[in-house]
Structure formats: C-alpha cells, structure tokens
Write a structure and sequence with these properties.
The chain is an alpha/beta fold. It is about 45% helix and about 10% strand. Helix 1 packs across helix 4 and helix 3 crosses helix 4.
Length: about 200
C-alpha cells in the first residue's frame, strides 16, 4: 500500500516520528501502562491515541488533574522513558512512510519534528537503521510551544533553509496536522497503526 501525496513539488519533507515513521505507539502505550500502574492511574487506549502528539509532561499533569492524583511528573516521565527504551527492540517501521523516505532520500532534505525527546527519537531511528537519512532533528527540548502550535515545524523549515510553503509534513495525529496547517505547510495524514 502506498501513501498518496498531495499534488505539487516539495523542497523538503518533515516527518513526525512516533506513529509516523516508527510504529511505536503500541509500545509507547505499554510503557505508559507500566509507568502509571504503580500510581493506580488509568489511561484508556482511546484517550492515549486522542492525546497523541502531546508532550509527556503535559499528559502526566492532565492525568493528575483528571484522577485527582499527585504523581511526580519527572519521575513518571523518566520511568515511562526507561520502559519504552527496554521495549525498543520490538519496534517496527510504518512501511508506507519508509517507502517515501527511501524513494526521496538525497532528492529532498528531511527533518524529524517530534514531541518526543532527542534520545527517544534517536534510539527509535537507530533501531530502524534510518537515523542517517535525516538532515535535521527537532525534538521536545528544541522548542517551547508543542503541536498544534506551528513552532516546531517552522524551526525545522528554517534549519533546512526551505520556505514553509515548500515543505510537506507527514503526520499521524490531529495536533500534528493542525500544526502543519498553521505553519502554512501541506500535509499527508498517516493512518494510525494499532497493532498492539
């Protein structure tokens, strides 16, 4: 199955990582479940997918408010990240997206624009032997306003030296598509992979 692209010529491709390049969302969900278990915090799968693209710390704060808990944000985030890293050998690629990466590599520059940490993005891309394909990585620690704000996409375009309107964004979440649109970029929606 190929992923249809919008018409036009694009000077750069910007990719979200989790759920877009890497079929990691099921593993992220397992990591969340295990990290939250000791606090007795429920995080239903449909809510997890609805909140896709939100920073980890924001999710923990929202879950605390939702359940009247006081989970320590940094501790839960570190535990979730450690568990995800342990699960990483099981990660797979999203084949429809990787096909575009292989087809366009060296023809247009690529950036990853992710709400995950640089360590998580790097580890995921290394696990799939794709890290060397990307000219720029824009990760959670590189910007202040998360998707749906366009800041991260605009930063990636600047670092690539490509006007925003010449970029094509690959995204799997509503927040990511909204951010791409706000940045003045065309986008292609990657179907969410639910293969847990």
């Amino acid at each position: 199955m190929t992923l249809p692209l919008p018409p036009g010529e694009f000077a750069a491709y910007l990719f979200d990582c989790d759920g877009t390049i890497v079929d990691s969302m099921p593993l992220h969900y397992v990591a969340w479940q295990r990290a939250l278990d000791e606090w007795g915090c429920e995080f239903p799968e449909d809510l997890f997918y609805a909140w896709g693209g939100r920073p980890t710390a924001d999710i923990i704060v929202a879950l605390n408010e939702r359940h009247g808990l006081a989970m320590p944000v940094a501790t839960v985030a570190e535990n979730r990240e450690r568990i995800y890293q342990e699960l990483l050998p099981q990660v797979a690629a999203v084949p429809e997206v990787v096909a575009h990466i292989h087809e366009a590599h060296r023809r247009v520059p690529f950036a990853v624009v992710s709400g995950s940490t640089r360590a998580a993005v790097t580890a995921s891309l290394e696990a799939l032997d794709l890290l060397d394909r990307f000219d720029v990585l824009v990760c959670a620690e590189d910007y202040t306003r998360a998707k749906p704000d366009p800041e991260a996409f605009l930063l990636a375009a600047r670092q690539l030296g490509v006007p925003p309107e010449s970029c094509l964004v690959f995204e799997d979440t509503d927040l990511g598509i909204q951010a791409a649109t706000a940045a003045g970029m065309a986008s292609v929606r990657v179907p969410q992979q639910r293969t847990a």
